[in-house]
């Protein structure tokens, strides 16, 4: 049974590892190619886009794919939509693997917003030294803010416009609480902005902000396509694949 994993996340790599070790599955992982030095999963890997939903549908047919797992980043809305359309048209079963989002805890000062434009409006009103942890895409939403200073952390340098006052910190998680707390203190951060990516790799910044009493602007995830079948772990995705294979 040939399975396409739309990957790029830790959960996608975990699924590729455990499914590749199980007899009866042939795993192909696809990465969008947006990270310069991605962490590669086990097994066959293709890098690059498909050319939209129709290109993905054609690729599924040409490569005899029997099931597809969308294990992309929770904010990769366009890819998830293309996967849903391609699956519906081709009849290939699809499941979306999404780790749970973060939950607000006692002591948190969260401001939830629907998108990056709203996040930019909030941080401008909340503080003067902003820790921006949204990845390299979307930083241009903050480019028009000339009053705050930004510490921008990303794996690769952002593309597009940047705010006039910033420091760029290139780093890949996981991040530990002690290091995050030290970073907030040394850079005198008074507001944190992040996407609700979920997971343990980058959660320590939230605990550090909580301990420091710093407000956190949290961008909500975009919705998955209507009727999406969702699992929350690689183990659950593997169980779904097993059921699909038996069916």
Largest beta-sheet characterization: 6 strands, parallel
Would you tell me the overall average pLDDT? 95
> β content, as a range?
15-25%
The count of strands amounts to 12
Spatial order of strands in the largest sheet? 3-2-1-4-5-12
Radius of gyration: 19 Å
The ordered string of helix (H) and strand (E) elements is EHEEHEHEEHEEEHEHEEH
Shape field = elongated
Helix content: 25-40%
Q: Calculate the terminal CA-CA distance, rounded to whole Å.
A: 12 Å
> How many H/I helical runs?
7
Give unreliable regions as ranges.
none
Structural class: alpha/beta
Summarize the structure.
With 247 residues, the protein is of the alpha/beta class.
Describe the structure.
With 247 residues, the chain is an alpha/beta fold. 32% of the residues lie in helices and 22% in strands. The protein is built from 7 helices and 12 strands. The chain has helices spanning 10-20, 52-62, 77-90, 116-126, 177-186, 204-212, 234-246; strands spanning 2-6, 26-31, 44-47, 67-70, 94-97, 110-113, 129-133, 149-154, 166-170, 191-195, 216-219, 230-231. Helix 5 crosses helix 6. The longest helix is centred in the middle third of the chain and has 14 residues, at 77-90. The radius of gyration is 19 Å and the shape is elongated.
Question: Which SSEs are present, and which pair or pack?
Answer:
Layout: E1 2-6, H1 10-20, E2 26-31, E3 44-47, H2 52-62, E4 67-70, H3 77-90, E5 94-97, E6 110-113, H4 116-126, E7 129-133, E8 149-154, E9 166-170, H5 177-186, E10 191-195, H6 204-212, E11 216-219, E12 230-231, H7 234-246
Parallel strand pairs: 1-2, 1-4, 2-3, 4-5, 5-12, 6-11, 7-8, 7-10, 8-9, 10-11
């Amino acid at each position: 049974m040939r399975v396409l994993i739309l990957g790029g996340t830790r959960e996608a790599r975990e699924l590729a590892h455990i499914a590749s070790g199980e007899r009866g599955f042939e795993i192909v992982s696809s990465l969008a190619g947006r990270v310069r030095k991605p962490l590669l999963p086990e097994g066959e890997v293709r890098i690059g886009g498909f050319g939209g939903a129709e290109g993905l549908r054609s690729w599924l047919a040409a490569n005899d794919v029997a099931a597809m797992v969308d294990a992309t980043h929770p904010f990769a809305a366009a890819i998830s939509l293309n996967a849903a359309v391609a699956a519906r048209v081709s009849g290939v079963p699809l499941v979306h693997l999404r780790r749970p989002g973060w939950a607000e805890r006692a002591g948190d000062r969260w401001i939830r917003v629907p998108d990056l434009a709203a996040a930019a409006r909030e941080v401008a009103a909340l503080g003067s030294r902003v820790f921006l942890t949204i990845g390299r895409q979307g930083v241009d939403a903050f480019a028009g803010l000339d009053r705050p200073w930004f510490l921008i952390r990303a794996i690769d340098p952002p593309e597009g416009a940047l705010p006039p006052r910033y420091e760029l910190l290139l780093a890949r998680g996981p991040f530990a609480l002690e290091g995050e707390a030290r970073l907030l203190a040394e850079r005198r951060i008074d507001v944190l902005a992040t996407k609700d990516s979920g997971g343990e790799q980058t959660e320590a910044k939230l605990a550090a902000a909580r301990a420091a009493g710093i407000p956190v602007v949290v961008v909500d995830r975009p919705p998955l396509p209507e009727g999406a079948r969702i699992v929350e772990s690689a183990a659950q995705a593997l169980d779904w694949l097993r059921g699909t294979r038996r069916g």
